[in-house]
Write a structure and sequence with these properties.
By secondary structure, this protein is an alpha/beta fold. It is built from ten helices and eleven strands. It is globular and about 60 Å long.
Length: 355
């Protein structure tokens, strides 16, 4: 199959939905599918691996085996060569660069996620035409990735300011030739809006939720240099409905769990969910947030299938703790990949041990 190139203010009583209308822009500015992936230098040599593979039936050659595997591929539209590259447990974050014309909207959000990295996840965990959910969609990075990879996307965003910027982003950054499938932003509280969606109606869930109060603290020198100096926001909102404004960590985790429980209901059996998070410091405490997210997801029925470390190698280093104590610069995120079990017995390859 050919692949395409790659605040709301607090209004609990008046939630409104907005269907995104994608308008034409100049195609040359949109990254291609190839650009969604990391440079080839970041991957192992697939050619050498394929030459060394031994197949159980002893009849199929290395040259023809990838085609056979692709015909049997029920998960995505990738070839065997593309598939194996994406299973590397370490990825390097890929962005457009702060001076790119398509980075101007993304940069306004205090915690944007690269649509290119989300695009890689979408291409691995879905097929063209599948339906993707992002319950914390921000400025619509997931929906942009859905648009350029021919998937249908639905995102939920509490803050109208970010939702409107997300709409603008889709209008200005996605060519009309790639807008055949609808992309929709629902403005509202995910804890409420998720309950209105049909059970088992999504093929994939991908999101990066709030990291508790990491953005609510007083701006440090990093925030002043990278955000305030450009006039950018340093927090999502002041809304009481914003999970990032909950003061108690355990309460925050409970409310986040309400969203994840609904995501489990909405996801089809045998499909996947990817939650992108980072650990963080709160005062003098190092919070292992990714472990807490795993615990919550598993408590609602999800099965952890693997973790990908996303290296943020373009971030600046700051002298935290110097010269008195060790304080790390946290330059990686965890992509936590879960499956909603089918209840059926898995094939032997699912439990095979990796070398």
């Amino acid at each position: 199959m050919a692949k395409p190139s790659f605040e709301q203010d607090s209004q609990p009583k008046e939630q409104r939905a907005m269907a995104v209308s994608v308008l034409p822009v100049e195609p040359p500015l949109t990254p291609t599918l190839k650009e969604l992936k990391s440079d080839e230098s970041e991957h192992i040599d697939i050619g050498e691996i394929m030459e060394e593979l031994a197949f159980a039936d002893g009849k199929t050659s290395v040259a023809t085996k990838p085609i056979r595997l692709q015909n049997r591929n029920q998960l995505n539209d990738l070839t065997g060569k593309e598939w194996i590259q994406e299973t590397n447990s370490v990825w390097f974050q890929k962005g457009l660069g702060k001076n790119h014309v398509h980075a101007k909207i993304e940069q306004q959000h205090p915690a944007p996620f690269s649509f290119q990295d989300i695009g890689r996840l979408i291409c691995f965990f879905t097929k063209q035409g599948n339906k993707v959910l992002d319950p914390f969609c921000g400025v619509a990075s997931t929906l942009k990735a859905c648009a350029v990879t021919a998937r249908e996307g639905i995102g939920i965003e509490l803050i109208s300011k970010w939702a409107e910027l997300g709409q603008q982003r889709l209008r200005e950054e996605v060519p009309i030739t790639l807008s055949a499938l609808p992309q929709q932003i629902i403005v509202g509280d995910a804890r409420v809006e998720l309950t209105k969606l049909k059970s088992e109606s999504f093929d994939y869930v991908v999101t990066s939720p709030p990291y508790w109060q990491i953005l609510a603290k007083k701006p440090d020198h990093k925030a002043k240099r990278e955000r305030l100096s450009y006039g950018y926001a340093t927090k999502y909102s002041d809304s009481e409905l914003d999970l990032g404004n909950i003061t108690d960590y355990q309460t925050f985790l409970h409310e986040l769990g309400i969203c994840f429980k609904e995501c489990y209901r909405l996801l089809r059996k045998g499909k996947y969910a990817s939650i992108i998070v980072s650990d963080f410091r709160h005062n003098s405490t190092y919070q292992t947030f990714h472990i807490d997210v795993i615990r919550i997801m598993e408590s609602h029925g999800f099965k952890l299938k693997g973790i990908t470390v996303l290296v943020q190698n373009s971030k600046s280093l700051y002298p935290y703790g110097y010269p008195y104590a060790y304080v790390p610069n946290i330059h990686h995120q965890y992509i936590l990949n879960f499956e909603k079990p089918t209840g059926e017995k898995k094939g032997k390859n699912d439990s095979a041990k990796a070398d």
